[in-house]
Design a protein that fits this description.
Length: about 700
């Protein structure tokens, strides 16, 4: 039986309704202010809150508490679990949890990547409660969302920079709003609704694939005769086991106060999507981490494995995370809303012009923030958005932009029109003025931008840090430009025109998958980073350092450390992949193929001995042996290439060698083995195939 969402929603969250009942009225009000406006919490108040939290958590069956944080480039959250129980001097065991325990934690940070920011001797890391994100109970543990930094204050996570960027965009957004006469505006909120894609495979089959277990993706595997071209998966009926799984995921998320909307099958077989309703960026970040965690853990209970990798199966659509992002004032004005008459909406036009300038200026940084090693198999691979950053605006807004570029102002706008179904009984639906362009990486969808490049296993912290920081930067420039204008309206119009003219190259409404676009983008001078390795240097571009230092988001030193971490991470992942391939080839595939050649050779001998034609068997044997030789040579070569790559001195060179040489050697090994998979008898193949894994889960 299904669970009633109204009954369980938010059950495990220490939310407003719980605080209202459990905190003294004056303290409750103080906490409310801190939650919506930020600021320092006194230790005294923290003690009161901690006491109430502890009592509530114990009633929920919690025995431990933990500070949850997200180390940089590690996609699943971490936490150090402490027991509530403590033994004071008199020997009586007591459950304690103080304001200090709530506010700050001290996990050992030495095992998380720091890119040289911390020496092991000062490997301390600190976590600080993010009061704006709700505390919850999960798996008998009171979980406290936190930001994570080093002993000397450098950010070690993806949340601290995000909180700073959110603050910056609010500060400069407010200035701009006031310039436009919105005196009552005090905050700008950045909202995010991340759509999460994932694959489900049968656990028994997964366990037999070393590549999936060690690297999250298959390193070998031929496409079955039936692929996704059948398209019957999309919105198809969700298999019973998967449906049960989704119900359980829903229930757990509801209890944690996360509303999820759609769970239809995605384009690829065995692929699904889950989308929560949008929330303030840092909360959306915490929720997305929780969603990923619950997707994985719940799968296990159903004999399934949830794959969050961007490209678990070659030749099958990969997974991404669509980052739906908007900026809205505390007075309820969505800065990305064109309104009924976008041609007259100067605030919208200015924000749009700022977005164009920001995306154009920080294109590579944006591309990087959406990337990880796995996403290299997706971006530009004829499915997900291309690796080139461009913006799609839809007919109506693009027309407004074109008018401004051509004549310095817009005087009309295309009406959205009505969809006429031609049947009397059906109401005519108002047509969405922004039609869909699924090939654009950065698409305007009516009141928000949908950034579709983001890697499915990445934290959304980095991406939203860039988005908010780049807008803060443009808002500040715009404000400085306009604040002393004598004729504000005229100055605004001229400034919008100038920005749109300067950055019009970033707009592209056509087919992002086409070759023509690659050629055209090159002509326009737009960067095209095929690999994350080409984009990593963006972390230390002058434009990046300038922007991040200006708003105190990340220092030059922190950015350099992050660059180092990213390069090392890339090489490490490719290294594990290469070694896994060699291992599988030597221990599984090659022995299986040898068995087959023996069987064939025996057959040839016995068939010939009775004087019958054995040419077919002989041909198959020859062909199999040729491929076996190729596979063995390729495995030996791959080992040598890996050793060569890791010998280089600079991490940049190591990463490049892995990207070019090691990847090429990996492809060489995969080819003969995938070919043999298609010709060997099914029962002789040592691992489950794509067909087994994708269609039978
Ligand atoms: P799609 O058609 O792309 O699947 P959905 O209606 O499922 O779109 O919404 C995708 C995501 O966008 C959801 O998480 C939704 O909450 C979010 N979203 C909707 N409006 C906004 C907004 N103004 N700002 C940010 N996210 C939003
Ligand atoms: Mg979408």
């Amino acid at each position: 039986m299904g669970v009633n969402i109204e009954k369980v929603f938010g059950d495990n969250v220490f939310d407003d309704s719980v605080m209202k009942v459990r905190l003294p009225k004056s303290d409750y009000e103080k906490v409310k202010v801190l939650m919506s406006e930020g600021g320092e919490i006194t230790e005294q108040l923290a003690d009161v809150v901690a006491q109430a939290m502890k009592e509530w958590a114990l009633e929920k069956g919690a025995t431990h508490y933990t500070h949850v944080f997200q180390p940089y480039v590690i996609s699943v959250g971490a936490g150090k679990h402490d027991s509530f129980a403590s033994v004071p001097d008199d020997g009586e065991i007591e459950n304690t949890f103080t304001g200090k325990d709530l506010l700050m934690g001290e996990p050992d940070a030495s095992s998380f990547p720091s890119g040289g920011l911390r020496k092991t001797s000062s490997a301390r890391g600190y976590t600080a409660w993010d009061i704006t994100s709700p505390v919850y109970v999960k798996e008998d543990t009171l979980c406290i969302p936190t930001a994570f930094c080093s002993y000397t204050g450098e950010s070690l996570d993806t949340k601290t920079p995000l909180l700073k960027a959110m603050h910056a965009v609010s500060k400069y957004g407010v200035r701009l709003m006031r310039l436009f006469g919105h005196e009552d505006c005090n905050r700008i909120f950045s909202y995010v609704g991340p759509e999460q894609e994932y694959f489900l495979v049968d656990k028994n089959k997964y366990m037999k694939r070393a590549d999936l277990r060690f690297t999250g993706r298959t390193l070998f595997g031929a496409m079955p005769p039936k692929g996704q071209e059948m398209d019957d998966q999309y919105f198809g009926s969700i298999k019973t086991r998967v449906k049960k799984y989704m119900n359980e995921v829903d229930e757990q998320l509801w209890k944690l106060g996360i509303t999820c909307k759609t769970e239809h099958n995605e384009v690829a077989p065995a692929q699904h999507e889950i989308a929560p309703i949008f929330a303030i960026s840092n909360v959306a970040l915490d929720n997305n981490l929780l969603i990923m965690d619950i997707l994985k853990k719940t799968a296990d209970k159903h004999g399934l494995v949830c794959l969050l990798h961007e490209k678990p199966f070659e030749g099958v659509n990969g997974s991404g995370k669509h980052n739906n992002w908007s900026l809205t004032s505390d007075t309820g004005i969505n800065l990305f809303k064109p309104g009924k008459k976008p041609e007259d909406n100067k605030l919208f036009q200015l924000v749009l012009a700022c977005t164009m300038a920001a995306v154009d200026r920080h294109a590579v940084l944006l591309r990087l923030a959406a990337s990880n090693t796995g996403n290299d198999h997706r971006l530009g691979a004829n499915e997900a958005p291309p690796a080139i950053i461009s913006m799609y605006l839809g007919d109506q807004v693009e027309d407004v932009v074109n008018q401004i570029i051509e004549k310095g102002e817009a005087t009309s706008s295309l009406s959205s029109g009505e969809l006429d179904f031609g049947i009397k009984k059906l109401p005519n639906l108002q047509k969405d003025p922004t039609d869909r362009n699924r090939t654009s990486p950065f698409a305007f969808t009516g009141n928000r931008f949908e950034f579709r490049m983001v890697a499915s296993s990445n934290s959304i912290g980095d991406v939203n840090t860039v988005l908010n920081a780049m807008m803060a930067e443009q808002f500040e420039i715009a404000y400085e430009e306009l604040k002393d204008a004598e004729d504000l309206d005229k100055a605004v119009t001229e400034y919008i025109t100038k920005l749109m003219r300067e950055h019009q190259r970033i707009i592209f409404n056509g087919d992002g998958y086409s070759n023509e676009w690659t050629v055209e983008a090159k002509k326009r001078g737009l960067p095209n980073c095929r690999s994350i390795v080409d984009a990593i240097p963006a972390l230390t571009y002058d434009s990046t350092i300038e922007m991040y230092e200006k708003f105190g988001i990340l220092s030059k030193q922190e950015l350099e450390a992050r660059k180092e971490i990213q390069l090392e991470q890339y090489a490490n992942i490719r290294n594990i992949e290469a070694l896994t391939m060699i291992d599988m080839a030597n221990k599984l595939y090659i022995p299986a193929i040898i068995n087959y050649t023996k069987q064939l050779a025996d057959t040839v001998v016995s068939v010939k001995s009775v004087g019958v034609d054995a040419s077919v068997q002989t041909d198959i044997l020859k062909d199999t042996t040729e491929k076996l030789v190729k596979a063995k040579k390729a495995a030996v070569n791959l080992k040598a290439v890996v050793e060569e790559a890791s010998k280089k001195a600079e991490s940049q060179d190591i990463a490049i060698a892995y990207k070019d040489d090691v990847m090429a050697a990996m492809a060489e090994l995969r080819k003969p083995i995938d070919e043999l998979e298609k010709s060997l008898p099914k029962e002789m193949w040592p691992v489950p195939t794509y067909g087994d894994m994708i269609f039978d889960s």
